[in-house]
Amino acid sequence: MFTEDIVKHAESSPGEECCGFVLLNENLEVVVEPCINESSTPKDCFSISPSKFIDYTLTKKILGIYHSHPFSEEKPSIHDIKASEESGIPYIIYSLKTKKKFLY
What is the pTM (predicted TM-score) of this model? Predict the structure, then answer.
């Protein structure tokens, strides 16, 4: 299941937020595409390359964007809510603290 891939990605870098895309591939399967967190403060937030975001928007079917919260609960921050609403893309957040997921 794709959520297991999100958990694995988050657990692989527990001191920083991980991030990536949840996509629908050509076989109509839900898959995870990890990205590099390009934030200057990866312990506190994530940033996906704008060029990668534009490329994926034009060439792939984005179902959501995922990221982890290493030190806080799975609830979205104000920034998460604004970014999700502005992009029109759901956010899946996994908390390393609570081991729970949240879909916004």
Answer: 0.95
